Each structure stands twice: as structure tokens, then as C-alpha cells.
Amino acid sequence: MNSSHSPSDTGNHTAVVTRISDTQWHAVEDDRVVGHGDASRRPDGRLFISIDAWHEAVFDRIADTMLTDLPTPLHTVVDEADHDSKSAWERAGFTTGRREQGYHVPTDPQVTGLGSVRPPSNVTIVPAGEAEEGPLRALDRVIRGEVEAAVGWRTMPAEVLPRPAGTTLVDPSKYAVARHFDQYVGLVRVTPLTRRPRIGLIAVRADSHRRGIARALLAHALGSLHRSGTASAYAEVDDSNAAATALFEGIGARRAGSTIELVRH
């Protein structure tokens, strides 16, 4: 275990930061835990850290120790409205890597204007739970490769990042797909969370872009939620994804705060 000492503003004593496991650090002062840090490696390999401390000096001491103990690059996520947290991480040398905007998405077709939207010619929507797993996984691999070659898969929501086996598709029952003749060309993933369902991903093969398939998939997903009695869903969009931003804002989705991913190289 690694320990560090530094004065803190919690009193006239010395804070001791101790690494208690490979992924956890504690700051102890006067026999009290006054802060802790955690590290976790995402499925795509990125290392994320978090720190919980009441005082700036304790935060800084924990950060110093973790930065000494861990390899870079390191990542963390903060609410953009939490200026104190953002400033604390910036003191530790972190800079903004990407920004993700949250949206509350209405499901009522009279609000979204999606009630009359239909898939393009020769395209049908296969409801969630009815897609064939083999073709769905093949589509997932194609889309992942296209995204990685363009903006990078790191811009995708955390829940669809690749797992150790190399797949981003964990539960096929959560996906509805667009089928063009006998080929799957697009997908939408909806997680039925208790408070508000989450639209985790909408994606269409590059060779099927600009045909209205993404809009048809969204209309299907939101329509299904509306018929089940769900008034709204939640979605997160990377700020650099202009097409997704236009898609959601075009159906009346309301911005609901944003998060920032900070990185230290």
C-alpha cells in the first residue's frame, strides 16, 4: 500500500492517503476517513478515476497520489454545471476531452411529429426481441468499424462500449433493427430503466445513410414506449455528433444538462 502525507484544511492534523487496493484510495485524518478515490477500467480499455472529498486540500492530495500510482492517460466525468468539481480536476492537470448533452425525449407522436413516419421503400422495422441474433451481431460489428474509422467509438455512450469479448452487443432483446430485404442495415437500442427508458444507441450502416432509416427507427422506438404508457425517454448525444443532435432536437427533445469527460495525458 502507498501512503502520502499533506496538510489539509480540515484541521491542524495531517491527512494520510493510503492505497488500500488496486482500485481504491482512502484519505484519513485524525482517525476519520475524509475522502476516497476509485479507479475503474472501462471495457474499451480507458481508465476512469473518481474522487470524493469534502475539502480541496484532501481532493488534491488524493489526486496527487492517484496520479503517481496510475498510468496515463486517465479519464473522469463531471457534470458541466458542477464548476467546483471541474476546477478541482483542472488543478490536477485534466483538460476537456469531450462533451455529452443529455435530452429528455417525448414519446407522444403528436409532440414529436413522428406519427406519420414510415420506413423507406423495401425497409421494415423488426421489433425489439424479434431480431435474429447472428445478423444483429454482424450489423453491430460493421457499424462499430464504421464509427471507429470516422469519429471513434469512444464517442459512444459508455453502455455500448466494447466488452472484453470485442462485442458491444450484450442483450439482443433490447435492439430493434431496420431490415432492407434480407439484410440488417440499422438498429436502435432502448434500455427499459424504471424511472425513464434510455435510448442508448441509434446507428445505420454508412451505405444506408440519408434514407430516413434512423428517423424511422426512432419513430418505432418512441411509438412503442408511448403505447406502453411511457411519457418520455432519455438520450445522450456527443456534442460532435451534429446529425444526432439535429435528429433529437427536431422532434422536440429538451436539453437536460451535459457532462464533460476530462482527460490527463
UniProtKB/TrEMBL annotation:
Q: Does the keyword Nucleotide-binding apply?
A: no
Matching InterPro entries, A to Z? Acyl_CoA_acyltransferase, GNAT_dom
Q: Which domain of life is it from?
A: Bacteria
- EC number(s) reported in the record: 2.3.1.-
Which Pfam family, giving just one, matches this sequence? Acetyltransf_1
Is Glycoprotein one of the keywords?
Answer: no
The record, for SUPFAM superfamilies, names:
Acyl-CoA N-acyltransferases (Nat) (SSF55729)
Q: Please give the Gene Ontology molecular function terms for this protein.
A: acyltransferase activity
Residue ranges for the region (Disordered) are 99-120
Q: Which UniProt keywords apply?
A: Acyltransferase, Transferase
* Start and end residues of each N-acetyltransferase domain: 123-265
Q: Protein name, please?
A: GNAT family N-acetyltransferase
This protein's species is Streptomyces hesseae
